[in-house]
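Page 47, continued from p. 46.
Same chain as before, 369 aa.
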Amino acid sequence: MRTPLDKFYPLIPAGGVGSRLWPLSRAHAPKFLLDLTGNGSSLLRQTYDRLSGLTQSSVMIVTGESHAQAVREQVRELNDTDFVLEPSPKDSAAAIGLACAILYKRDREAIIGSFAADHVITPVEEFQKVVKEAVETAATGKIVTIGITPTEPSTAFGYIKAKSSLGIDNAPSALAVESFVEKPDAATAADYVNSGEYTWNAGMFVAPAELMLKHLKENEPELYAGINAIAEDWDTPQQHQTLQKLWDTLPKTAIDYAVAEPAAAAGDVAMVPGSFTWDDVGDFDAVTRLNQEKTGEKLTVLGEKSNVLNQDSSGLIVTHAERKIAVIGIENLVVVDTPDALLITTRDKAQAVKNTVADIKELNLNELL
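Result:
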């Protein structure tokens, strides 16, 4: 008899550039391939290591064809059958939906778990404990989200409302989800946090592949038909040809809209609280905070530390160029020095880096993206 964990297949969607981390994160070197915590491992590699210890199955990675070589170099344990390579960028429903369809074709009892490639989570043991509860809950016929206790009334995340215990053996923390809420305004976010009834939606979920595909078929029939046709030819000589033929015809939509929200309305969604520290490393302020919490240093230097001359300054310097950088008496600075671009800002303006990226696009300076 197979246990729920025996049927568990983790998958890692590895996409997106992370425009708030420009000029460090680029199209050719996206956020998930970078070491932003100073421990010698990329965010992708850290994600893989957290998941590989949970299951006897291989981890599946969904990423763009242009990143295939770099991803393979970072996760050498995986085989070609463990990759889904997107011919072009699509939203999360196509990427995760196709992975679900492939895994369902290989194993009709598959329970999939989707975990973004670019998050920082500690401690690993607590994360794995939560995922095991989520797998047990998914085995009862639920799509299970992992909710993160808010540390502030953030407007950058969606929220999950869940209160009632499901009373599931081996998953005592599992709650029934009442609703998903998209990114709120500041006042609404404050109300959510003060109520104590909401958690952040961190985009992590565990579910039977069959149930995911059922909701996808009901809510996005065109997308379902396309990924199902691709999956039918997966692991055959026609795999690449069918993927190239059909991929660009797939509608673009997020997995929350396509599956999670309608599934919650149908009573098919549960939530397990994430009793671990989580950060989506969304900007350079987050990079600074994560490193300072670890080292206690006022000024974090990522890269060649001998390139930085510091007098009474605090914040973050990323040095990926040859020149020396001298900083004197500046609090909460952010300097990112690369061979072809230099960013200078402050921690409290870190979110505005995305506006610079928008300006670069408008000026058609595509070599800098």
